[in-house]
Amino acid sequence: MADAVLLIENLRKRFGGLVVTDGVTLEIGPGELHAVIGPNGAGKTTLIHQVSGTLSPDDGRILLNGTDIMHLPPDERAKLGLARSFQITSVLPRFSALENVALAVQARSGSSYRFLRPAAGEAELNDQAMAALTEVSLDHRADILAAHLSHGEKRALELAIALALEPKLLLLDEPMAGTGPEESERIVTVLKKLKGRFAMLLVEHDMDAVFALADKISVLVYGRVLASGTPHAVRNDPAVTEAYLGEELE
Ligand SMILES: Nc1ncnc2c1ncn2[C@@H]1O[C@H](COP(=O)(O)OP(=O)(O)OP(=O)(O)O)[C@@H](O)[C@H]1O
């Protein structure tokens, strides 16, 4: 695909004798939500780390909107529009929800607010931050310290922070981990709303969430892509069922 937002080609990574990424090829088009699933230890998290830049692959290519980012540090990748949410704590507990998002808006905008009068600059920052909080239905909790938010609300706040960065590609690392059914449903609703605006790479164990959200699914087993395609095709692939040892993919 010429206009792939993310193109991963033949990615390889080993830890000593253990091959954790074994020739992974995967691409995500504009606005597409691509889920990577697979049994424990399949290499999903290490794949996310290699895309975000916290882990160096041994071989292969990673292109973000056509730019080879393979050897760029995480902050350079972030400047090109790569954001990551969940399984990292980007939330500052002693700041309010609004302040947390305003900091992200400021980080994205660099020094552009320096040239506004302080009050005007702050109002503009807060407006943008509030817009991101509204997107994740957290606007009514804007003034609450992040430390006092529920687990599900913190997850929503992390999403708002990612949104404020206006990403080209959002990496979602197990957004449902540690959440109850109600919170999971809330995160799925928010992600559904955001779908189509930017590309997303989702790693998730919760199959209900995966099948509710994904446009494409890749199944990773022992570091290799066993199957890749639409949710329907993947669900009906006998090799996938076998890899999950008969667990139902629903
Ligand atoms: N820093 C490391 N050094 C050595 N081995 C590692 C390291 N990080 C991960 N591994 C190993 O690499 C393999 C893949 O791990 P990874 O965490 O990517 O799997 P996963 O698919 O995300 O699993 P899970 O679903 O349980 O989160 C595992 O066997 C893991 O033990």
UniProtKB/TrEMBL annotation:
Task: Report if keyword Nucleotide-binding is assigned.
Answer: yes
Tell me where the transmembrane regions lie: none
GO cellular component terms attached to this protein's record = plasma membrane
The terms under GO molecular function for this entry are: ATP binding; ATP hydrolysis activity
Domain ABC transporter residue range list: 6-247
Q: Which domain of life is it from?
A: Bacteria
Is Nucleotide-binding there in the keyword field? Answer: yes
Which UniProt key words apply to this protein? ATP-binding, Nucleotide-binding, Transport
Enumerate the InterPro entries for this protein: AAA+_ATPase, ABC_AA/LPS_Transport, ABC_transporter-like_ATP-bd, ABC_transporter-like_CS, BCA_ABC_TP_C, P-loop_NTPase
SUPFAM superfamilies listed in its UniProt record: P-loop containing nucleoside triphosphate hydrolases
User: Could you say which protein family the record assigns here?
Assistant: Belongs to the ABC transporter superfamily.
Q: What does this protein do?
A: Involved in beta-(1-->2)glucan export. Transmembrane domains (TMD) form a pore in the inner membrane and the ATP-binding domain (NBD) is responsible for energy generation.
Q: What protein name is recorded for this chain?
A: ABC transporter ATP-binding protein
